[in-house]
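Progress note, sequence design subtask.
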C-alpha cells in the first residue's frame, strides 16, 4: 500500500473525520464502481489512524439500505458525541425514488456507544421543506453545539427554489434542543454564487470562524469563507481554496492542537491525463495553519513527510542534460539566460518525496522539478515555478495544441529567498507543497516511469537542499 490510502479493490470518497481517544476515526464512502458484482449504492466504511500513514481497517460502519429504501446510498454526514452516545447524521440518497414521486435525499440518524457498531434510527428522516428548498438536494449534514444559542445547529448542502438555476446553492440551517426534533430556519449562507455547497464544515480557530464547503459548479473545488461571527458576513480571502480541482469534499478535524483537512484525489476516466476526473480515489490529508491575518494555508503533516526517511544519492548521467549546470553537493545552479536548461538525475521511484529550494534571479525566468522524464528529455512532467505570474504549475511534455497545463496554484506573496518544495509521489498520485503554505494535487497517468531532475529557463536558477527520499 502506498503512502496515500485507498481501499485495494475500490475507491475512497467523502471522508467524515472524528477525533476521539487519541486517534482520528475516519468514516468514508466506499465505492467499488461495479454494480454487477457489489450492487448499487455506497456504504460508510471505517478507518482509524494516528499518523495518516498506517490505518486500521475496522470494516463497514453504516451499510446500505435494501433496494428501494431511502438510504440505498449512504452519503456524507457527520459524527459527534453527546451525553456519552455517538451520533451519525447522514444523507440517505436514492435517486430512483424520484420516479415514484418521493425525494431523492433525506437526513437520517444512527447511534453507537463504541464507534464500531451502529444502530440506524428507523423512525428518523428529515426532508427538505419543498416550499423553500429543492426536494432532491438536501444532504451532507454537519451538526454542532452552538453555545451562544444554547442549541444544536445542523448545516446542510441545499438548493433554494428560486433564483438563477445555476446559482441556487446555499448552506441550509436547522436547529434542535435534543437532536430529535429539528426546526428548519432561514439559510445559514446563501450567496447565489454556486450550484451547491457540498460537505459543509465549520470550526473556530482563534477569533475567526471558518465555513468550509465544496462547490459543485464550474471549478468543483473545496473552498472556505471566514467570519468573526456565526452571523457573518462570510468573507472570501484572496485565495479561498486549499488545493486544486484534484482535492475534493474536504472536511476537517482537530486533535486539540492541530487541525487537518481530509479530502480525496480523484482518478481520471481511462487513466489518461486529459480525460475528466471521476468521483473517488485516494485519501489526501493537509495540515491547516492560520496566518496572522486569519487566512488559512496548508502544509504536509510531518508524520507523512517523516515516512520518507532514507535519502538516495544524486545520480548524474552523462548526456542527460541540456545547457550548462554547476552541481555541487546537494545544490545546483543553471545559467539558462536566453534558453531552456534541464538536468536529469537518477531513476524516479514509484513512491518518493523530492525536496528542493528553488530560486530564480530575474523577471520572466522559470525553474522547477522534472518528473518521470525519459532519457531523451522529450517526455516528462515538470513542476514549474513562475515568479512573474506568482504561481506554480504542473505541465507536461509534449503538450500538443492549446491544451492547458494540468494544474496550477497561486503563490502570493512570492518569497524572496526562493520557494521550498516538497513533492510527494505515490504511483499516479502527485501532491506538492510549496513553502509549507500552498498545495497542488494532480494525477500523472501518461508517464509512469523515468528520471527526475531539474529545470530552468530564461534566467539563472539556483537549487539548494536537493534530495530524493524514500521509505
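Output:
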Amino acid at each position: 500500500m502506498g503512502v496515500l490510502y485507498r481501499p485495494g479493490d475500490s475507491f475512497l470518497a467523502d471522508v467524515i473525520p472524528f477525533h476521539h481517544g487519541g486517534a482520528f476515526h475516519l468514516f468514508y464512502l466506499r465505492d467499488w464502481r461495479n454494480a454487477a458484482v457489489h450492487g448499487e449504492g455506497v456504504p460508510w466504511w471505517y478507518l482509524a489512524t494516528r499518523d495518516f500513514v498506517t490505518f486500521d481497517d475496522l470494516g463497514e460502519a453504516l451499510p446500505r439500505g435494501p433496494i428501494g429504501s431511502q438510504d440505498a446510498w449512504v452519503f456524507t454526514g457527520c459524527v459527534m458525541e453527546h451525553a456519552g452516545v455517538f451520533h451519525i447524521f447522514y444523507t440517505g440518497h436514492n435517486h430512483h425514488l424520484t420516479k415514484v414521486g418521493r425525494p431523492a435525499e433525506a437526513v437520517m440518524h444512527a447511534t453507537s456507544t463504541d464507534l464500531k457498531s451502529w444502530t440506524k434510527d428507523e423512525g428518523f428522516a428529515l426532508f427538505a421543506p419543498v416550499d423553500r428548498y429543492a426536494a432532491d438536494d438536501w444532504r451532507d449534514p454537519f451538526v454542532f453545539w452552538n453555545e451562544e444559542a444554547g442549541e444544536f445547529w445542523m448545516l446542510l448542502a441545499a438548493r433554494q427554489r428560486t433564483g438563477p438555476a445555476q446559482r441556487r446553492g446555499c448552506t441550509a440551517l436547522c436547529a434542535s434542543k435534543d437532536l430529535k426534533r429539528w426546526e428548519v430556519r432561514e439559510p445559514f449562507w446563501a450567496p447565489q454564487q454556486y450550484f451547491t455547497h457540498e460537505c459543509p464544515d465549520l470550526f473556530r480557530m482563534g477569533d475567526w470562524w471558518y465555513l468550509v464547503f465544496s462547490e459543485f459548479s464550474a471549478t468543483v473545488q473545496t473552498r472556505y469563507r471566514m467570519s468573526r461571527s456565526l452571523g457573518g458576513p462570510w468573507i472570501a480571502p484572496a485565495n479561498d481554496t486549499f488545493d486544486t480541482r484534484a482535492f475534493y469534499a474536504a472536511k476537517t478535524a482537530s486533535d486539540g492542537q492541530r487541525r487537518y483537512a481530509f479530502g480525496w484525489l480523484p482518478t481520471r476516466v481511462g487513466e489518461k491525463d486529459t480525460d475528466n476526473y471521476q468521483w473517488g480515489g485516494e485519501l489526501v490529508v493537509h495540515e491547516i495553519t492560520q496566518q496572522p491575518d486569519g487566512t488559512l494555508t496548508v502544509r504536509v503533516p510531518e508524520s507523512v513527510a517523516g515516512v520518507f526517511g532514507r535519502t538516495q544519492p544524486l545520480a548524474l548521467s552523462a548526456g542527460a542534460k541540456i545547457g550548462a549546470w554547476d552541481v555541487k553537493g546537494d545544490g545546483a545552479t543553471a545559467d539558462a539566460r536566453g534558453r531552456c536548461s534541464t538536468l536529469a538525475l537518477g531513476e524516479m521511484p514509484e513512491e518518493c518525496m523530492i525536496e528542493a529550494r528553488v530560486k530564480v534571479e530575474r523577471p520572466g525566468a522559470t525553474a522547477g522539478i522534472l518528473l518521470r522524464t525519459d532519457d531523451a528529455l522529450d517526455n516528462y512532467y515538470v513542476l514549474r515555478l513562475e515568479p512573474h505570474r506568482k504561481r506554480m504549475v504542473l505541465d507536461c511534455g509534449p503538450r500538443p495544441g492549446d491544451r492547458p497545463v494540468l494544474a496550477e496554484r497561486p503563490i502570493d506573496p512570492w518569497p524572496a529567498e526562493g520557494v521550498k518544495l516538497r513533492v510527494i509521489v505515490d504511483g499516479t498520485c502527485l501532491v506538492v507543497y510549496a513553502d509549507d503554505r500552498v498545495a497542488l494535487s494532480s494525477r500523472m497517468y501518461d508517464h509512469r516511469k523515468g528520471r527526475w531532475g531539474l529545470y530552468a529557463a530564461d534566467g539563472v536558477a539556483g537549487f539548494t537542499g536537493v534530495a530524493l527520499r524514500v521509505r
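Helices lie at 35-38, 302-305. Work on this subtask will continue into the next period as scheduled.
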